[in-house]
Amino acid sequence: MALLDYVEKHNSLVASGSPTRQEVSMKVFRSIGVSIDYPRAGEDPVGHVHPALQGQDFRELQEGDPIFMTFDGEEMTFDRKAHKVPEKYERVYALFVNEAAYYEKKVALMLMSCGEATFSKLAS
Protein backbone atom coordinates (compact mmCIF):
# COMPACT_ATOMS: atom_id res chain seq x y z
CA MET A 1 0.00 0.00 0.00
CA ALA A 2 2.86 2.41 0.65
CA LEU A 3 3.65 2.72 -3.05
CA LEU A 4 0.05 3.58 -3.94
CA ASP A 5 -0.06 6.11 -1.09
CA TYR A 6 3.12 7.71 -2.44
CA VAL A 7 1.74 7.88 -6.00
CA GLU A 8 -1.50 9.42 -4.78
CA LYS A 9 0.35 12.06 -2.74
CA HIS A 10 2.74 12.76 -5.61
CA ASN A 11 -0.15 13.23 -8.04
CA SER A 12 -1.90 15.57 -5.59
CA LEU A 13 1.26 17.68 -5.28
CA VAL A 14 1.68 17.83 -9.07
CA ALA A 15 -1.97 18.87 -9.47
CA SER A 16 -1.55 21.62 -6.85
CA GLY A 17 1.55 22.94 -8.64
CA SER A 18 3.92 22.30 -5.72
CA PRO A 19 7.47 23.08 -6.90
CA THR A 20 9.12 22.11 -3.61
CA ARG A 21 11.50 19.16 -3.82
CA GLN A 22 13.11 17.20 -1.03
CA GLU A 23 16.30 15.14 -1.30
CA VAL A 24 15.97 11.63 0.12
CA SER A 25 18.28 8.65 0.15
CA MET A 26 17.84 4.94 0.66
CA LYS A 27 19.89 1.74 0.72
CA VAL A 28 20.28 0.00 -2.61
CA PHE A 29 21.52 -3.57 -3.02
CA ARG A 30 23.21 -4.52 -6.30
CA SER A 31 24.25 -7.93 -7.51
CA ILE A 32 28.01 -8.46 -7.71
CA GLY A 33 27.49 -11.37 -10.12
CA VAL A 34 28.31 -14.11 -7.61
CA SER A 35 25.91 -16.84 -6.59
CA ILE A 36 26.74 -19.75 -4.30
CA ASP A 37 25.40 -23.27 -4.84
CA TYR A 38 24.47 -25.74 -2.14
CA PRO A 39 27.29 -28.12 -1.17
CA ARG A 40 27.11 -31.13 -3.48
CA ALA A 41 28.64 -34.52 -4.18
CA GLY A 42 28.21 -34.77 -7.92
CA GLU A 43 24.66 -33.60 -8.60
CA ASP A 44 23.32 -34.51 -5.16
CA PRO A 45 23.12 -31.94 -2.37
CA VAL A 46 25.02 -32.92 0.77
CA GLY A 47 23.97 -29.98 2.93
CA HIS A 48 21.57 -27.13 3.52
CA VAL A 49 21.68 -23.44 4.40
CA HIS A 50 23.06 -22.98 7.90
CA PRO A 51 20.35 -22.18 10.49
CA ALA A 52 22.20 -18.96 11.43
CA LEU A 53 21.82 -17.71 7.83
CA GLN A 54 18.30 -18.98 7.12
CA GLY A 55 15.85 -16.07 6.94
CA GLN A 56 18.69 -13.52 7.02
CA ASP A 57 18.40 -11.85 3.61
CA PHE A 58 20.35 -8.55 3.46
CA ARG A 59 22.77 -9.73 6.17
CA GLU A 60 26.43 -8.83 5.74
CA LEU A 61 28.61 -11.90 5.29
CA GLN A 62 32.02 -11.89 6.88
CA GLU A 63 34.93 -14.24 6.30
CA GLY A 64 34.35 -17.41 8.33
CA ASP A 65 30.60 -16.95 8.84
CA PRO A 66 28.76 -20.28 8.64
CA ILE A 67 26.68 -20.48 5.46
CA PHE A 68 25.99 -24.21 5.11
CA MET A 69 25.69 -27.29 7.26
CA THR A 70 26.26 -30.73 5.77
CA PHE A 71 23.71 -33.42 6.48
CA ASP A 72 26.19 -34.99 8.90
CA GLY A 73 26.50 -31.74 10.91
CA GLU A 74 29.71 -30.17 9.54
CA GLU A 75 29.67 -26.37 9.21
CA MET A 76 30.85 -24.83 5.96
CA THR A 77 31.95 -21.21 6.14
CA PHE A 78 32.07 -18.20 3.87
CA ASP A 79 35.42 -17.78 2.14
CA ARG A 80 35.78 -14.75 -0.12
CA LYS A 81 38.50 -16.34 -2.23
CA ALA A 82 36.82 -19.74 -2.60
CA HIS A 83 33.51 -18.06 -3.48
CA LYS A 84 35.25 -15.80 -6.02
CA VAL A 85 34.25 -12.46 -4.52
CA PRO A 86 35.97 -9.67 -6.49
CA GLU A 87 38.43 -7.77 -4.29
CA LYS A 88 36.77 -4.41 -5.00
CA TYR A 89 33.84 -5.41 -2.77
CA GLU A 90 34.85 -4.84 0.84
CA ARG A 91 31.41 -5.80 2.13
CA VAL A 92 28.98 -8.32 0.68
CA TYR A 93 25.44 -9.20 1.64
CA ALA A 94 23.42 -12.39 1.23
CA LEU A 95 20.17 -12.22 -0.70
CA PHE A 96 17.64 -14.80 -1.93
CA VAL A 97 18.84 -17.14 0.81
CA ASN A 98 17.40 -20.63 0.24
CA GLU A 99 14.75 -19.39 -2.21
CA ALA A 100 12.87 -22.36 -3.62
CA ALA A 101 12.63 -20.77 -7.08
CA TYR A 102 16.43 -20.85 -7.43
CA TYR A 103 16.97 -24.42 -6.20
CA GLU A 104 16.89 -25.99 -9.67
CA LYS A 105 19.28 -23.29 -10.89
CA LYS A 106 21.74 -24.41 -8.20
CA VAL A 107 21.65 -21.11 -6.31
CA ALA A 108 21.53 -21.27 -2.52
CA LEU A 109 22.16 -17.53 -2.20
CA MET A 110 23.36 -14.54 -4.18
CA LEU A 111 25.87 -11.92 -3.10
CA MET A 112 25.16 -8.20 -3.23
CA SER A 113 26.92 -4.94 -2.54
CA CYS A 114 25.16 -2.18 -0.67
CA GLY A 115 25.20 1.51 -1.43
CA GLU A 116 22.97 4.54 -1.22
CA ALA A 117 20.86 6.15 -3.89
CA THR A 118 19.79 9.77 -3.59
CA PHE A 119 16.86 11.23 -5.45
CA SER A 120 14.46 14.09 -5.14
CA LYS A 121 10.76 13.89 -4.54
CA LEU A 122 8.01 16.45 -4.39
CA ALA A 123 7.33 17.73 -0.89
CA SER A 124 4.33 19.51 0.54
TrEMBL record:
Domain AstE/AspA barrel-sandwich hybrid: 26-112
Gene3D superfamilies membership: 2.20.25.160, Zn peptidases
InterPro entries: AspA/AstE_fam (IPR050178), Aste_AspA_hybrid_dom (IPR007036)
Domain of life assignment: Eukaryota
Pfam families: AstE_AspA_hybrid
SUPFAM superfamilies, A to Z: Zn-dependent exopeptidases
PANTHER family: ASPARTOACYLASE, SUCCINYLGLUTAMATE DESUCCINYLASE
The protein's name: AstE/AspA barrel-sandwich hybrid domain-containing protein
Source organism of the structure: Durusdinium trenchii
